[in-house]
Amino acid sequence: MNKTEETLITHLIELRKCLIKSVVCILTGFFCCAYFSKDIYHYLSLPLANILPKNSFFISTHPFEAWLTYLKTSLIAGLFISSPAVFWFIWRFVSPALYKKEKKYSIAFVGLTSLFFIGGAVFGYFCVFPYAFGYFIGITEGTDIVFLPQMNSYLGFAFRLLLSFGIIFELPIVMIILSAMGIVTSKQFALYQKYMIVAAFVVAAILTPPDVISQILMAVPLIALYEVGLMFAWMVEKKNKPQ
User: What's the CA gap between 91 and 114, in Å, rounded?
Assistant: First the structure.
């Protein structure tokens, strides 16, 4: 076995450890949230429940749906509350490829990554959910259709949106890491600015409901986050530049 193969195997072993520790943390969060799953689902459903038309309500279509939905709710909540620990394990996996100067910023990395991830989900919940669900409610107005959202379907849709916003808000962190590792420079990021605007609206069109307001509410923050990432990437390069 040559040195390259040994290095690859070492990285795979470290990646496996990172994944195992992350899963354990998420499961721990799941068990911590299980007791409060009904309350968590209640608050998660409020953006839609508050605008439901008269005679509309959430439904369960088979005996185990409510139970499974609360189980999934606990898992989703566990994912979000355990995210700081998961990001810490990711940092430990990535940090060997960084310079010693960057390794000192472990706490800042974990803090900012967690803040952006949870902040993205919060932004989606408070800013996008009302408009997105309002759009779907508006489609049925003036018709004979009675909108009865299914518990499990709503949870799946809400989770995809929350996770999408959480991941998208990590864009500046990804850009900082790429810059710190020397993979992409701030000048290269600047060259892709005009393409980023188009890409932001394409991503928004894919991930959000087909209404203009929801797409703008995702695309505009994504463009702003790219600019923030570009600024931080430039600062990282300037700090690492030999005097």
Answer: 12
Residues 118 and 97: their CA atoms lie apart, in Å, by: 26
Residues in Cβ contact with 232 at an 8 Å cutoff, skipping those fewer than 6 apart: 172, 175, 176, 179
Would you tell me how many other CB atoms lie within 10 Å of the CB of residue 177?
24
Structure tokens at 113: 């990554």
List all residues 6 or more positions away from 168 whose beta carbon is below 8 Å from its beta carbon. 120, 203, 207, 218, 221, 222, 225
Q: How far apart are CA 177 and CA 170, in angstroms?
A: 11
**pTM (2 decimals)?**
0.85
Structure tokens at 103: 């390794």
Q: Mind listing the pLDDT tens digit for each residue in 91-143?
A: 888 777 665 666 667 788 889 899 999 999 999 999 889 888 888 888 888 88
